[in-house]
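Collaborator request log, item 7. Partner lab (contact: R.S.) asked for a structural prediction of WD40 repeat domain-containing protein to inform their binding assays.
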Amino acid sequence: MKDKKQESFHVIPRVDVPDLSGKRSSVRIRRKPVRKSQVETWTVRPSIETPDQEEKIPEKKRKPLSVRAKRTIRRWIVVGVVTAAVAVSYLTITLQTYTGIEVVEQIQEARGGNSFYVRYGENILGCDADSVSLFNLEGKELWKESIQFQKPIMEVSRSSAAVAELRGNEIAVFGEDGLRGQIKTTLPIEKMAVSSQGITAVILENGGAPVIQCFDVSGNVLIEYKVSAATSGYPVDLALSPDGTKLLVSYMMTQNSEVDTQLAYYDFGNEHKDGDYRIGGGTYANQLMPTVFFNSEEQSVAVGDGGFVIYDGAEPKEKKKISIDKEIRSIAYNEEYLAFVLADEGSSGSELRFYDYSGDEVVSKEFEGDYSNMKIDDGQVILFDGESASIFTEGGIHRFEGTVGANIKDLFVLKGINKYLLMSDKGTQRVRLTK
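Returned to partner:
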């Protein structure tokens, strides 16, 4: 297509111009002045009836580029606006701290006695002095088993749970479908651990010669070890690997008025001809480590008053030792993180601090308040005491700070935004966080 501003000339031959092609032709040409008014200027525009090269392509086969470009730009603008709106809404909801609770649904009436609850896979295991029951997050009871424990304690490992009478002689082992077996001991139970297969280990009180025993689900004794507290120290905690083949025991040793900790690992998954099943461990001076647990088959952690230590490997060796120079008030852990509530001496405030299992600090958050209960549930740290609660995400965002109007027994995260399952002296309720 020609430019509209370009000038074009069309010269018409005149009839009085002689033919110069013939022989002996002689013409005398005299220049005649031409006035400007006699020169016609034409602007040539293409006829609207004459399509150019691109317009000859049928409309259905190829749309004008400008139309497609406009539609693409318009589409991306819409996508951008919607994405921005969703992002703003998400940040508005997740980054603010809520202070109120709204009851959405009353699921169950209050249970009698000192009941408590534990997350059990996708369900919740509840226990009181009369029964152990499993119910889903919708509040539907899946099964219920009668027990008679005045002071029940519970340990859970993946698909198995063990419930015992503190300083009693009975243990009930549960699976996802209910009661699997019962165990009786001859001495009072002080500490207990369970593996995912249902193997149960206990520390039994026996004066200065405590006994460590392991049982299968049917109650058969697999291992028995009589401890000499005078030489080995007194066992204060124990843990089983998920497959039940390794046992970790934390011993408290007192020497020259100082308290030391000895960690000992035992392997019962392989035959040891020399009869010595110990495969690793270590001694930590001037430090008491009353909490030990396995994070995986070959990784375990011991937590004490000055920090924690991570062990790794089939024959466990110290991987990393982390010192904490603040008072440890509470601890909680899951498969990804180990969380602490720390306090400075003489300070009313607290610090929430997260570590991963490489020993690296990943979150540190200051907050006010003092809570006696702490747990990690579905990526959130939940602190509660009486009617008060505080909730943080694993990223350190403070989700909730306030009271719920009832004495809290437990609090679990539900699917959906700001939704929780509240167990209290008013029963089981589905609640939502509000401003």
